[in-house]
Amino acid sequence: MAEMAAAQPGIGQRKNRRVVLGWALFGLAAFVLLPWYFPQNLTLWKSLPGVFGGAETAGGLTQALRHQKPWLWSGAAGLLLALAAARLPAGRAQGRLLLAGAGIGLIGLLASGFIADPAELSAVRRQQELIANTGWKTMTPIELFESNSQFHETLAKWSGNRFILQAVRRTDQLRRLVEYRQARSREPRQTQAKEHLEILDAIAAHDALKAASLMRAHLEGARRGKVYGGEAFVAPAPP
After folding, report:
1. Using CA atoms, how far apart are residues 59 and 30, in angstroms rounded to an integer?
2. Which of 61, 62, 65, 96 is CA-nearest to residue 81?
3. Do 103 and 50 fall within a single domain?
4. Structurally, how many domains does the chain consist of?
5. What angle do CA 104, 66, 126 make, to 5 degrees?
6. Does the residue 188 lie in any domain?
7. Cα(237)–Cα(143) distance, rounded to whole angstroms?
8. DSSP letter at 40?
């Protein structure tokens, strides 16, 4: 009985290490072998062949190595710390290492880079400047809507978050069905273009907090205009 009692702690330690090791290895395998994003038009099974390919279906390792997402290395670092923790006996030291790994992974993913492409930033700025100056009066409703959609989809793309980009694109697809033919006031298009330019200025200055605050106010203003103001496009007068 005494020998069995003495053996229990050793058995528990080995079991604990196996559990930690198993989850760490599972996480690393998923990081390498599963798509980091799941396109809405593809199942997991259909996405698997592209795990080492394009950004649409690539796994975390490939995203970090080939698709300019270096912040994903934080996830790998957290998993490697968990792997190291599996070599320690259950206790405070192992717990601290596991918490450190989880913290590094979480902080890295939360701080995932919002990276604005300089060429795209210049192109979107020129487009919004045109609308703010004269385009709000001369462009067709379709052109105005597509310019607005391009602005929001480009910023969603810069977030590096495929889910956000897919959500914005899906929203634009739904709006496109009705907004082409709405017709009342054009002045809000000029105001929105000016707000877009303020957001772009904040992004260019690397002031993420200001850009986020401006975007929040911009979206809330647009929502209120749609719900309470009945805003819509006016078709240009015939020449």
Report:
1. 8
2. 96
3. yes
4. 2
5. 95
6. yes
7. 15
8. T
CA dihedral 29, 35, 36, 42 (to 10 degrees): -150
CB atoms within 10 A of CB 84: 16
Question: Phi-psi category of 59—alpha, beta or left, where left has phi over 0 and alpha has psi -120 to 50?
Answer: beta
Residue 5, CB-side half-sphere exposure with 13 Å CA sphere: 2
Distance of CA 151 to the CA centre of its chain: 16
The pLDDT confidence band at residue 198, using thresholds 50, 70 and 90, is: very high
Q: Which 3 state secondary structure label does DSSP give 95?
A: helix
HSE-CB of 162 using CA atoms within 13 angstroms? 17
Domain range enclosing 47: 2-110
Residue 99 in contact with residue 75, Cβ under 8 Å?
no
More confident residue, 10 or 233: 10
Please identify, among 67, 92, 110, the residue that sits at the C-terminal boundary of a domain: 110
Q: Is residue 236 part of a domain?
A: no
Q: How many degrees, rounded to 5, is the angle at CA 59 between CA 68 and CA 153?
A: 55
Residue indicated by tokens 């992974």? 105
Instruction: Evaluate if residue 196 carries a pLDDT over 90.
Output: yes
Q: What one-letter code names the amino acid at 238?
A: P
**123 and 194, same structural domain?**
yes
